[in-house]
Amino acid sequence: MTATVLQALESKDRHLFTVHENTPIRDIARLMTQNRIGAVPVLDEHARLAGLVSERDLVAALAGHGMDVAHLTAHEIMARNMPTTTLDEEILKVGRKMTDYRSRHLPIVDNDAVIGIVSIGDIVKFRVDEAERLASAMQDYVWRSDHASVGR
C-alpha cells in the first residue's frame, strides 16, 4: 500500500484559504501573495467547490485582458470541472491525476465540502522525505547487521 494524501499532509500547515465566485481578482492575487500559496478554491453560494484559481489562471487573465484584469472576478477566470482528491487517495494516483490534467493543485473534498488542497510540491516533498528515510534505514540495516561485507 502506498501513502495517502493525509500522510503527505501530516506535517503541513493545513489552513485553508478560499474565495467566493464574486471575489475580485486583485483580492485573490493579494491573498495568494500574502500567504505564499499557488492556488485557491472558489466556493459557490452553498459553500461547495465551484472552481479553482491558480497562478496560471491569473497570468492567463492578465494576458487576455491586460489592465482590465482588475475588474474580473473569480467566476470569470477560475478553472472549472477540475479533478479533486480525498484524504485517503494514494498519492501516486494523485500525482498521476495532476499529470494527466496538467494541474499543480487539487482540492481535497469530503462529503461535498472542500477541506484542503494538495500541491505537486507537497507530493514531491513527501516522496523525497520517504526516499531519504528508506535509504537511511537500508544503510542502518547493512551497517548494523552481519550482511555488511566491509566494516566501517
Automatic annotation (TrEMBL):
- Coiled coil residues, start to end: none
Q: Record keywords: Flavoprotein included?
A: no
The CBS domain covers which part of the protein?
12-69, 78-133
Keywords from the UniProt entry: CBS domain
InterPro entries tied to this protein: CBS_dom, CBS_dom_sf, CBSX3_CBS_dom, Diverse_CBS-Domain
Name of the protein this chain belongs to? CBS domain-containing protein
